[in-house]
Amino acid sequence: MRDPLSVLTEAFTSFVLGKVETTRLPVRTSTGQAQAVYLPTAAPGLGDSGVIIGREVYSGKGYVYDPFQLYGQQLPAPHWLVLGESGNGKSALEKTYVLRQLRFRDRQVVVLDAQGEDGVGEWNLIAQELGITPIRLDPMVANDSGIRLNPLDPAITTTGQLALLRTIIEVAMGHGLDERSGFALKVAHAHVNEHITDRQPILTDIVERLRHPEAESAEAMNVDIDDVRAWGLDVALVLDRLVDGDLRGMFDGPTTVGIDLDAPLIVFDLSHIDRNSIAMPILMAIVGVWLEHTWIRPDRKKRIFLVEEAWHIINSPFVAQLFQRLLKFGRRLGLSFVAVVHHLSDVVDGAAAKEAAAILKMASTRTVYAQKADEARNTGRVLGLPRWAVEIIPTLTPGIAVWDVNGNVQVVKHLITERERPLVYTDRAMTESSGPADPELEWETEQRALMMERQLDDNPRSTVA
Questions:
Q1: Does the keyword Flavoprotein apply (predicted)?
Q2: Helix pair 353-362, 317-331: axis angle to 10 deg
Q3: Does residue 169 share a domain with residue 314?
């Protein structure tokens, strides 16, 4: 029986201050019993249609992702950005994703393979497994038996050829063409296309015409022919590098016969090109436009264009503009662009910040592997990631990443099958693995996952009932 004084005190307090909330006694119980009362919560998944990536760390559910299935419903665009430090699993994710996509008959993939060891690209083993011969662009062997891609290929429209020539020159010069140089290039290109009809026009023809312009070209603008020659001199010198310089043999002849554009996987092996030279963005521009006009077709196939070392694209204003157009055009024809970048700061702080922002905006899927704390904060700010996701990015172990699919944010552990493992763990992949093979590291990964799960439970803003 309660003390009468306590009852009187409680009644008086309720009259003056209002009803007093009942205080519940603490309950001691086990985790097994409590989980039936306090049900776990996790964000909803993306459905079960597509390719499986792995499992969600917090809920344990399988994580299925396919931009073609989600496009128009949960995704405004099918393009995908993959970020993270080396050694955390980007390479393994790319390879298993492509292998699993190719199980669908209406899928086709092009890979720009910019990394490699032992004289071959990183995708060489997968290409061999599928019976595919990579298209190896190598200036050291191009004059003998190498592959050539012609920027003046008749498969590319006249407008596309001129735009590609301008981009090549602007990338090499580091600035845009002025009106006079642009005019000299335009009249040389028009003359070559008009008068060479018995074969594929090639870059040598453009260089020759720039050095020796026709009189009618000058007369049409009421200028002296020597002026037209002077205007085109710098342009000719730049293109001469592709004809008789360090990039000769790859783009100065007709397109190599026999390139199979109907193969399920097309690999451009760029591993013999210096990744830090001006050659790489020039190659990216030529391959991108050549694919736009020869590969992307309205045949209802779903196409994936995967670019490693993609900062060569996004960090060059002129190349970024070309790819921005490709992304907008390809989206209508079922193209998913996958860009793999180590650091977002390489892009957003570069010379093409405006163009980079536009491309990033079109990437509705973002996968972020482990980064240093400062880089993670910058990434979270640019991509608009929730606070809890930014905080755990530096703690992620190899194979685990934060996935943001148009605002649906999950922490996902990538899983690799035994059949895929020999194709994924090449010598190069030892520094780009998607999951530790060492049991002790595997145990550490699980412990970190449990720690992140507890962090999520303590932060109700990051869960959805």
A1: no
A2: 20
A3: no
Q: How far apart are CA 123 and CA 450, in angstroms?
A: 34
* Tens-digit pLDDT string for the chain (465 aa): 567 667 666 766 665 555 555 556 666 777 767 666 655 565 667 777 889 999 999 888 899 999 998 887 778 889 999 998 888 899 999 999 999 999 998 999 999 988 776 678 889 999 999 999 888 887 776 555 678 888 898 888 898 899 889 888 888 887 889 999 999 999 999 999 998 989 999 999 999 999 988 888 778 778 888 888 999 999 999 888 888 777 777 888 888 887 888 889 999 988 888 777 777 888 888 888 888 888 888 888 899 999 887 777 777 787 888 888 888 877 778 899 998 888 887 677 666 677 777 788 888 999 999 999 999 999 999 899 999 999 999 999 999 999 999 999 999 999 999 999 988 876 544 444 444 444 444 445 445 545 544 554 444 333 332
The CATH number assigned to the domain holding 455 equals: 3.40.50.300
CA distances from 243 to 139, 161, 227, 252 (A): 11, 17, 24, 5
Helix (H) or strand (E) holding 362: helix 353-362
Domain residue limits at 74: 51-147+264-462
**pTM exceeds cut of 0.85:** no
